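Researcher: Final request for today, and then I'll write up notes for the group meeting. The sequence and the SMILES for NAP follow.
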Amino acid sequence: MGHMPPFAAADTRYASMPYRRCGRSGLKLPAISLGLWQNFGDINPLDTQRSLLRRAFDRGVTHFDLANNYGPPFGSAETNFGRILKEDFLPYRDELIISTKAGWDMWPGPYGGMNGSKKYMIASFDQSLKRMGLDYVDIYYSHRPDPFTPLEETMGALALLYKQGKALYVGISNYNAELTKQAVAILKSEGVPLTISQPNYSLLDRWIEPDLLGTNSDNGVGTIVFSPLAQGFLSTKYLKEVPGDSRAARLEWVRNGLTEATIGRIKALNGLAHARGQSLAQMALAWTLRDERITSTLIGARTVEQLDDSLGALANLAFSAAELDAADQITRGDPDIFTAPAKANGDDLRADPDYRA
Ligand SMILES: NC(=O)c1ccc[n+]([C@@H]2O[C@H](COP(=O)([O-])OP(=O)(O)OC[C@H]3O[C@@H](n4cnc5c(N)ncnc54)[C@H](OP(=O)(O)O)[C@@H]3O)[C@@H](O)[C@H]2O)c1
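Model: Predicted protein-NAP complex:
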């Protein structure tokens, strides 16, 4: 445990976080959840990871979101989380909602690449349990659609784990509205509810507004949105330069999104946040929660300071019509910078000549 003292959770941990019902299920999620995609790999200091998880839980964040391939390297976020869980959080297991996923590239060969086969979904699930030291997860997701695997097979794998009690709830991520309707129907025929959908959504990526959000809601499916800060763009950090410790400095595809037009939108949104007395990150998070159909907004944080700033969004979740209008003027009609609708339909795999179906 390094030099950190043993963990005793704060008595005040449920004092200020709102919890929202996930679709038509009995499950409630915190308005802000924490994801372990980028900042919990072996390249990140374990003490910082532990401090982030402790601080989040002390402030009412009961939901931690993982996937088989979070790291780097793949699997390391689950392993690190499992270690911290064992050392700090086991007395609180029943206060936690832990999710994981499979669907993207994970291990070599035909069974561990991008796909939705039963073989992959079940084997990956068992690996995830081992890495995290768990005997069940709260939510298991199909991480992305696979156009070459019958949806019945992928949903059948989720249904099997649900019926075995190994996944208390099941979900889908990066699926479009049409595939979501099909997933709901297939799972229903197995007697299994689709509880949650995880798409990306932010002021700079509004693709779920026309169809997916309504489809989820009509079918009793909750929506948890990821990358609500658009990889950190919805903060002031990129207004002058690309800081050396930032995600854009590390990842080229993120850096490529930093066009002049996007910087212009970020500046305008920053003015709006300032007028509301919030940081831009806080306003961006509050904005994703303005619609009650959104169960939770799923943040990433690299430092405890970022986490605290982001959780400060809860102090002002209300928007006037004029503020919403102003945000629309700045963002609506602009291209979504990190959304690939082709991915939500599986078309990216259909089009990839290197992809082995
Ligand atoms: N289902 C999927 O396909 C999928 C895909 C992506 C993510 N997710 C989930 O969603 C979670 C969140 O995604 P994300 O990390 O992209 O979310 P995000 O909140 O949009 O971005 C997080 C990054 O923004 C910066 N940041 C965070 N809080 C900040 C603050 N208050 N002020 C300034 N900068 C701040 C940090 O970047 P710097 O490191 O640059 O400082 C941080 O690493 C993931 O961990 C994962 O659980 C799911």
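Model: The beta strands are 19-21, 28-30, 32-35, 63-65, 97-102, 137-142, 167-173, 196-198, 222-226, 294-299. The first helix runs from residue 46 to 58.
Researcher: Thanks, that's everything.
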